[in-house]
Give the backbone structure.
Amino acid sequence: MNTFKKAVLLATVLVLAACGESKVTKIDGTSNGTADNSFQKMIYGMPSGESLQWELDIKMLKSRYQGDEFAKRFNGKTLEDLKPEIADTKTHFIKINRERHAATEQQEIDKLQVKLAEFEAQGESNIKYVMIAQTKARIDMYTKSRDEILALSDEQAWNTFGCGCQQTDYKPSGNFNTSKY
């Protein structure tokens, strides 16, 4: 009889478990709201560090694919399906940020080149040579900074600039491992 009670108890537990809510495994891209809802259900119950990383990755994807494009693009995708897109989006933002920061340094170099030409065109004076020397030093500083930005590896650029997404506060975690994607 004891075995019979255990069997009935086990059967009851299995029936109750089967009645529970099914696990969402794919993004429902019907709308942005359903995509967000299904994504939240997919990461529910994950360890907090893992779910936080997924939330940040999704914010980054949403910054790249805005509006309905996010929901449409990832409709029917699993978390595993998103990994290559996350890695590609990371590379996309690294390239944009590297170019943006290098361009900012180049703009300063260009402004200083104009000032240098103006100083060199001035008549003879002691201040002229001081201004020329200071301007050349600043040009060298910005040139070095620009060249260092362009020489950064992707991982160094990511750790320095992060996503740079305009719609998010996504900052580099310092532990984004592209080898897992």
About this structure: The radius of gyration is 27 Å. Helices lie at 2-19, 32-43, 48-64, 68-74, 79-121, 126-151, 154-161. Residues 13-22, 167-181 have pLDDT under 50 and may be disordered. The chain has seven helices and no strands.
